[in-house]
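The instructor's notes for this session suggest beginning with a concrete chain rather than abstract definitions. Hand out the sequence below and ask the class to guess, before any prediction is shown, which regions might be ordered.
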Amino acid sequence: MATANWRTINIDLLDPESSSNFDISSLAPSLAPVSAAEVQSLAGQIKQLLRGGDAEGALRGALENAPYGGDTGAKDVHLATVVEILQSIKQSEMSPMLSRIYGSDGGPEALDVLMKYLYKGMSHSSQPTSASSRTISPQPTGFSQIHSISRGGGEGGGQAMSVLLSWHEKLVEIAGLGSIIRVMTDRRTV
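After discussion, reveal the predicted structure:
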């Protein structure tokens, strides 16, 4: 007994209620796989609603059919669709539309999904340009200037961020701060 070093015994393995004896995979919900083709088809249907003037229906359709089980490409296509919908809605229509969605069946959950898309959109539009898109040109003064190659974005990223921040403000007014907490703790990502 004198040869056992009691300081190296992992007592958590002996406790049946320990987190090391708990299967963590049971915390993550099972998600049905979604193909990129299905997301493209859904995006087409949603854009058709948007062109028809039903912005609220397009937003509801996008939020109710979030591709949780899709790959990164499918999720990015859906994000672009949601951002396009948000940019097409006038600021004066935001609060009434969010109130109607919140008051409907499944409304708070739909607004939580919208909050997920707002955060994902903010994270995508704030990514710095890559080093490969920059050119270095030597100057006669001996200093070099670094130029970024414009990919047609211009101020569009700033405009998209402004729209997303406006939506975030209105969404917190309607759904409350609890929406932010639910989004931060949800394991399903959009």
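Then share the key points. The two ends are 55 Å apart (CA to CA). Confidence is low (pLDDT under 50) at residues 129-133, 148-155.
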